[in-house]
Design a protein that fits this description.
- It is a single chain.
- Helices cover 45% and strands 26% of the residues.
- It is of the alpha+beta class.
- It is globular.
- The N and C termini lie close together (6 Å).
């Protein structure tokens, strides 16, 4: 499964993460550094499993189960907010 932002979603990296703007609704989301890491990995073509491993490498105190759950929750949240499309 690959992920892409919807065409009307803008993204800006910040010092502490990332901001997404849904230009069709005017709503925006602020991601912390963990969320930005996950989104960048997914948009770069990493699978959810690869993304969870990257998250675990960046935060070694997290268990593999925790990173997998965090990535799954993040993907569900992005999908429910209709910020991403999947193929």
């Amino acid at each position: 499964m690959t992920f892409a932002l919807r065409p009307d979603v803008s993204v800006t990296d910040t010092d502490h993460g990332m901001v997404l703007l849904d230009e069709s609704t005017g709503r925006y989301w602020q991601l912390n550094s963990s969320g930005a890491l996950i989104l960048h990995a997914l948009l770069d073509g990493a699978t959810p499993q690869q993304t969870a491993r990257r998250l675990g490498e960046h935060y070694p105190s997290l268990t593999a189960e925790r990173t997998a759950a965090d990535v799954a929750f993040f993907i569900r949240s992005l999908t429910e907010a209709r910020l991403v499309v999947t193929a």
